[in-house]
Each structure stands twice: as C-alpha cells, then as structure tokens.
Design a protein that fits this description.
By secondary structure, the chain is α+β, with helices and mostly antiparallel strands. It contains 13 helices and 18 strands. InterPro entries: HATPase_C_sf, HATPase_dom, His_kinase_dom, HisK_dim/P_dom, HisK_dim/P_sf, PAS, PAS-assoc_C, PAS-like_dom_sf.
Length: 453
C-alpha cells in the first residue's frame, strides 16, 4: 500500500497494468469522464509491490471556479474477494451442469416453486420430454402423462413439510410405450431455504420387482416340495429314537443329531415359506383375542425345556389382551429367546418382561451376550441380514428369523426394535396394540362379536 508522500505527484498510470496502458485505458476513462460526467472503471489494477487486485471505481472530472478543467478524481474499492467468489460460483455451477449432464440416472432438479432448474438426459428420455421447452417450466405441467400426479404431489409435500428428504417413495407410472411401471422416487435437498433446490431421482423398479416375484415363487414352490420328504425323514428319525433307546451312546447321539438337524431344516423351510408369502402378500393371519402375557410365559416354559445353558427369568408379568395371530406371535417370542441364548454363549441368564404402556403392550427379551456394533444394527431386520461381526463367529443362522419376526409384528400393527451395546448384550422388544374392548377392571372381554365374522 502506498503512503501519501509516495503516491502524491506520481502519474496515475502506476495503478494500471501494462496491457491496459498499451490499450490506453487511462486516457479512455478520462475521456469518458469528461464527456459524460463520470467514467466507470472495473478491472485489474496494480498495488505498490506490483501485485494485482480487482478494483471497482469511478472517475470524475475536476473543474475550478471559472469552470476550467484542472484534473480528475478517482474513487476505487478493492473487490477482489467478491470477484473471486463470483468466479468460484460460476465454476461450481458449470461443474454442476457438467455433473448433471453426465449423471447416469433419471434426475430432475427443482426450485421452491416446483420449476425445473436442470435435468439429466436419462430423465428427459424416460419421460419423453423436450429439453428446449423444459427449463423453468412447472414440474407438474411437464409431467402430464401417465404419472399419478396426486400421489407424487403428496410424496413431495410430505418430504418438504416434514423435512423427510432421506426417504424413498414408490409410485406408479403408465409409460406410453412400456406400459405400467413401478418407480422409486428419491427426493434430496440440495440447498437450504430460502433458496431451496431439491432433486428427484426416478428409478424404474419394474424389472427388479418381476425378478423378485419369480424368485419368491421359486422359493415357495421349492419349499413346498422339500417339506414332504423332510416330514418323512422326521418321522423315521422319531421311530429310530424310540426303537434305539437301549443302543450304544454313540448311536443315540447320532440319532439325536439327526433329529436336531431335521428340526432345523423344518424351521428353515417354514421361515422361507412365510417370508415368501409376506413378500407376495399371501400370508393369512389367524387373529384371535388372547392374553399376551400368558402366551409369553408358555413360550418361555416350552423353550426352557429345550436348553439347559441359561436361566430365563420373567421380571414383569402384566396381563395384556391383544387381537393377533397367537401361533405366529408365539414364534416371534421363541425366535427372540433363541437368539438371546445363541448370542450370549458366555452368559447364563435371559430376562423377559411383559409390560403395558398406554395403548400397547411391550415384550422385552434381554441377553448379556456379544451385542451388536452401531454400524451393523440397521441390517438386522433385513432379509438374510446377518451382521459382519456375527458372520465371523461359528454361531449358525440364516438371517431370516429377525426379518420374519419384524414382518409378522408389523402385519399385526406393532413395532419391533432393539437397544444394544457391543460386548455387553442386547434387548430386543416388540409392541402390539392392546385389545380395545378388554376391561382391565373386570378382567372380561366386551363386544367380542365385532370379530366373530
């Protein structure tokens, strides 16, 4: 930066770049100031040490009292940061445009007024649109074909109002050439309000769903076909067990192992069949009114007879009438008990509780085993969703049990979840809504005829 005594008396040309001096920019600015009263000046200038900066200034002519021109004054501001920021923004926008153009999925970017800001080639081609007449148009006007607009608008309104930009939504679409399609819509926020921009990615699920349906049909058919020979083998295994009671210990152990493995295979086939039925929407729930606490105690007692390694204690026994499938709910309880014992090999206790909480009842099964790492918990209730840490152990399993349990509970209007800490144990729980007509004061059922049909 110049000091006053360093700059006063110097030619103003010392503030200009060599190329501007060659183009006679100072003379042009002063000429403009004389003609128009002021001259605009926004360009690179030079500091004392020769460094360049972007300056924005105005040049004014100076006159004496007689009106004679005696010089010029210049007001200048260093706007290098603003210019650099604008250049960076332009570069980012250009990069974003390039990214959108090259992005391999069907994506459209909208502003807060639902107007199209940008779109990928795949989006334009999939919906048979004209890119020239696309930008700036309201989204719900350009998508006027076979898309269920009411369904899509509901999805997007929910995402914006509830800030649920991390969720995906499935909608239907009637494609003019390819017929009915199932689309997954993935809304994502790009900028925060007030300059809200968000993207919509459309993924065509139709082929994948068809493949999954074929796979589920295959699993269902195969499981049915396998069930018959397994039943025969099981019957012969039971006969062997009965007839060879006086045999050598090695023979009795072999027969016991045969029956255990047959039981495992039978359970696996049943799980595969139920999973397939749930996926295809063909699972029939045989609902009835029953006391969930009594069912849990029965399952604990029955399960306790099949193992001797753990003491299973019930710490809360609150009566709770529910309207649910008793057999399948019992299988959920057994699955949680089995997992609690299986995944706590160094412990010797499992704690069970049945507790009423408002309009629902909560069943908890607590173990003191290996626990589950935070990053792996989200996979537990997925189909075949065994965690990586469990796969590294010798503990057997298919990854179907918890998935099936979760689906069965959801089908009955309940929820399922867990709290866990690695190496300290886990508590799995599920909830079911209380049967609304159960009178807790008299212990009797009222108006049960509503379910008689």
């Amino acid at each position: 930066m110049y000091k006053a005594d360093e700059i006063i008396g110097q030619s103003a040309e010392c503030l200009y770049t060599p190329e501007d001096l060659q183009e006679q920019v100072p003379a042009l600015e002063m000429g403009s100031a004389l003609r128009e009263g002021k001259g605009m000046d926004e360009r690179f200038h030079v500091k004392k040490g020769g460094q360049r900066f972007w300056g924005s200034g105005l040049v004014f002519p100076l006159f004496n009292q007689e009106g004679l021109h005696i010089g010029f004054s210049k007001i200048m501001r260093n706007i290098s940061d603003e210019v650099q920021a604008e250049a960076n923004l332009k570069e980012e926008r250009a990069l974003a445009q390039t990214f959108v153009a090259a992005y391999p999925e069907s994506v459209v970017i909208l502003n807060s007024n639902w107007e199209v800001v940008n779109a990928t080639t795949q989006f334009i081609e999939f919906f048979s649109l004209d890119k020239v007449n696309l930008m700036g148009k309201p989204f719900f006007q350009i998508i006027d074909g076979g898309l269920n607009l009411a369904e899509l608008r509901t999805v997007l309104d929910k995402a914006i109002k509830e800030h649920r930009f991390h969720e995906n939504y499935e909608i239907s679409f009637l494609h003019p050439q390819r017929g009915a399609r199932s689309l997954m819509v993935k809304p994502r926020r790009i900028y925060q309000p007030p300059n809200l921009l968000f993207s919509l990615e459309f993924e065509d699920l139709t082929e994948n769903k068809a493949v999954m349906e074929e796979k589920d049909v295959f699993i269902s058919v195969a499981s049915h076909e396998i069930r018959t020979p397994i039943s025969v083998i099981k019957a012969y295994g039971q006969i062997l067990d009965r007839e060879l009671k006086e045999s050598k210990p090695i023979v009795k152990r072999a027969v016991k192992k045969i029956n255990e493995q047959i039981g495992f295979m039978s359970s696996l086939i049943a799980a595969l069949l139920d999973t397939s039925k749930i996926t295809t929407g063909k699972l029939v729930m045989e609902k009835e009114v029953f006391n969930l606490c009594s069912l849990v105690k029965e399952q604990v007692e029955s399960f306790g007879l099949t193992q001797t390694s753990h003491q299973i204690d019930i710490v809360n026994e609150e009566d709770a009438m529910v309207f649910a499938d008793k057999v399948r709910t019992g299988s959920v309880v057994t699955n949680l008990l089995s997992n609690a014992v299986k995944y706590s090999p160094k412990a010797n206790q499992v704690i069970v509780s049945v507790k009423v909480a408002g309009p629902e009842v909560i069943v908890r099964v607590q173990d003191f085993g290996i626990g589950i790492p935070q990053q792996e918990q989200s996979r537990l209730f997925q189909r075949f969703g065994r965690t990586e840490s469990i796969k590294k152990t010798t503990i057997p399993g298919t990854g179907l049990g918890l998935h099936l349990a979760a689906e069965l509970i959801k089908l009955q209007g309940g929820t399922i979840g867990l709290s866990t800490q690695e190496n300290q144990g886990s508590t799995f729980y599920f909830t079911l809504p209380l049967y609304e007509s159960f009178n807790v004061n008299t212990g009797s059922l009222e108006n049960t005829s509503k379910f008689s049909h």
